[in-house]
Design a protein that fits this description.
Layout lengths: L8 H21 L2 H11 L3 E6 L16 E6 L2 E5 L5 H10 L9 E3 L5 H4 L2 H7 L4 E5 L2 H4 L3 E2 L30 E2 L9 E5 L3 E4 L2 E15 L9 E14 L2 E6 L6 H11 L4 E7 L7 H13 L5 E5 L4 H11 L11 E3 L1
Parallel strand pairs: 3-4, 4-5, 5-8, 12-13, 13-14
Antiparallel strand pairs: 1-2, 1-15, 2-3, 6-7, 9-10, 10-11, 11-12
Length: 334
Amino acid sequence: MYRPASLNQTNYSAMKITHLSVLLLIALTSGNHFINAQPNSRQKVVLLNAYDAFGVDNKNLKQDFGFSCVVEYNGQTILFDAGTDSKIFQQNIKTLKVDPKTIDVAILSHGHYDHMGGLDYLLSVNPDVKIYLPNDFFSLGAPVKFPFKETEPSIAKTLPADEQYFRGEKVVEGMVTVPTGRFWKGNVEYVTAGREILPGVHLVPTVSSLMGTFIKYPPFENNPQYIGMPELSVTFSTSDGQIILAGCSHSTIETIIQETIKLNADKILLVTGGFHLIPYSREYIEGLASRMKEVYHVESVAPAHCTGHMGFSIFKNVFGDHYKVFGLGKKLEL
């Protein structure tokens, strides 16, 4: 640093301290990226499988086909999915010493029975818990814009008021319907785009091309319109890379990885959850495992739930020491 001849050592030292203080203040107030990076680099991430059909032998844990994972991250308790049977979910988390009243956030991956059953119990004891849901109208009651338009809308005015929708005061076309359903009293939010919901915690929405609804109304009589099933995954940032947690991967675990990379290009430390590979061939699973390791540079995997026995075997062979068993009752600390 250049010093004028007239500047004495005392004044110069004071000037350096002031300069450093200003730089620190700018760093702390110029956004939350710097601030959020510090807890993530110190905190341990703990993932606990609370609902699955395989795992260690424990008479107090009941195995069932479904999935639920409890995550401790940066002082927050996050529930990802809640299994099939509400009573089994309640028994398992009690055995695992998880107090449902301390759950800060719940995330549902998709609207299938084997992932959402325990949410009824959770809401009965923790009714104000924040719940993030996929933007699924058919299964979960997300708001939807009325998709149809009458071919001759002028006909309405030829009818008496008591035969017109809303007595003719508003039209049906374009109205937004907000149903109630099982979450009507809940503190829910439907997710339509990837975003950070807590420091270091990002939701990754995808749409499955394998599951969904066919609409065969005009003008789609001959070629029905296909509406895919919305799905949510979640990622956790750490100093060693990001952790991807998927529910069932109906949109494929490869698509979830690709969408995660679009949102956050950080190294992928771990991919865990259900990979949905039970119906797939050995060749497909071997290719997928190889791509996850060689193309996407996934460091380690911990497949669970619907991955299937062949999936477990192949991923263990491909990832070797970087394969983690993650069945019911298993805790992963990273």
